[in-house]
Predict the 3D structure of the following.
Amino acid sequence: MTMTPAEAFGHVLKITRKEIGLSQEQLALQSGLDRTFISLLERGKRQPSLTSILEVSENLNVSATELIRLTVEKLHDENS
């Protein structure tokens, strides 16, 4: 089954969040987003806006560019 960009981003977001030991709720509070929205992002049910990408990347201490690079890499790995 082909992975969508939203699913790939969600996977990257979840892995990155867990690596630094943040809960969805902590990331949501720090980013000014709703915890439910973080959950939907991680499950690939919602696509992030540019603003959301910038907010979560800042609070994960990783560049938005790196999150996108990892997303593209995940898409390539899963869909090849």
Notes: The CA atoms of residues 6 and 45 lie 7 Å apart. The chain has a mean pLDDT of 96. The chain is about 70% helix and 0% strand. The first helix runs from residue 5 to 19.
